Amino acid sequence: MGFIDVIKDRARADKKVIVLPESEDRRTYEAAAQIMKEGIADIIIVGTEEQVAEVGAGLDLTGIKVVDPAKDPKAPEYIDKLVELRSKKGMTKEQATDILMNQYLYYGVMMVKMGDADGMVSGACHSTADTLRPCLQILKTKPGTKLVSAFFLMVVPDCEYGANGTFVFADSGLEQNPDPEKLAAIAASSAESFELLVQQPAKVAMLSHSTMGSAKHADVDKVVEATRIVKEQHPELMVDGEMQLDAAIVPSVGKSKAPNSPVAGEANVLVFPDLDAGNIGYKLVQRLAKAEAYGPVTQGIAKPVNDLSRGCSAEDIVGVVAITAVQCQAQ
Q1: CA angle at residue 48 from 46 to 53, to 5 degrees?
Q2: Cβ(197)–Cβ(153) under 8 Å?
Q3: What is the pLDDT of residues 69-124, one digit of tens each?
């Protein structure tokens, strides 16, 4: 059984309610129909009945709940809550009404905030910034978490490295150039996410172009300091660095370059030094190794909301919904 099939089984065991706000996109309906058919989650689509009928034409949408903000009896409650949450920013009732009636991402996030949905998936036709902005404004960060970051869950076929070819790549979608403190927080969150989703111990490698002092540069110093911080703050984690990619995942290279490391050659969580490296890295593995890439999955938000690549397929949305449902189970 493949990784995503295991995730789907876990989602089915305790079904959650996931809201999909992008009712203007055909992929939303294709994914929703598949999710309902497979029994992965209960689905809410935010949109008008006319839009759903038009864009979802020809698909079996039986059992899917459609919520039109203009007709939803809970809308006044959402408007009042949004005013309360954003009052320090000068939010008026008129502004809140305009936002919630016209920006379905905000409406979906309010459904999660108010407990009418467990999680949300968006991003097929919105940027990461557009998806995350309402989350950070309304849901805020998870207690005890210093920042919101994003990872891709990579499943590489016929791969003996990592957890049978399964890895977390972070941050591959959000944090542009994290300082040592942020990089350490990304490492800690990524280890937690890996263990939740893969159900194996995380082995975290702090990646660099240097392994254990083989090169001298300010970029290397950043990773060295981040490694020190995460070890100090999370002594329970198996984490090491700085190290090159081959030293992190190839056992023979790890023994040669970092013989005293508990992680070298066995890493399954790869923490990249910046967003450029993380984004390029996941796309290289996805395209050249034909890996399954699920994400960007967010971590650090108070409730599960996940982003999608705008180039995603309907099947990708199904996978991210399943992952989001499993995250919801851990709430």
Answers
A1: 105
A2: yes
A3: 999 999 999 999 999 989 888 889 999 999 999 999 999 999 999 999 999 999 88
* pLDDT at residue 1 greater than cutoff 70: no
DSSP-derived secondary structure for 47-61: S-HHHHHHHTTTS--
d(CA 312, CA 31): 11
CA angle 127, 66, 197 (to 5 degrees): 55
List all residues 6 or more positions away from 194 whose beta carbon is below 8 Å from its beta carbon: 168, 200, 202, 268, 269
- Contact between residue 45 and residue 67 where contact means Cβ atoms under 8 Å apart: yes
Cα–Cα separations (whole angstroms), residue 283 to 57, 80, 292? 33, 42, 10
* Average pLDDT of every residue of the chain: 93
For the stretch 242-259, pLDDT in tens is 999 999 999 999 999 999
The CA-to-CA distance between both ends of the chain, in Å, stands at 26
Half-sphere exposure of 157 (CA within 13 A, CB side): 7
How big is the chain, counted in residues?
Answer: 331
Number of H helices and number of E strands within the chain?
13, 11
Tally the C-alpha atoms within 13 A of residue 187's C-alpha that lie toward its C-beta: 38
Domains of the chain: 3-140+301-329 (3.40.50.10950), 149-288 (3.40.50.10750)
**How far is CA 280 from each of CA 123, 172, 276, rounded to the nearest angstrom?**
19, 8, 6
In 3-state terms, what secondary structure has residue 78? Answer: helix
Environment class of 115 (CB within 10 Å of its CB; exposed 0-12, middle 13-18, buried 19+): exposed
Cα 104 to Cα 220: distance, rounded to the nearest angstrom:
43
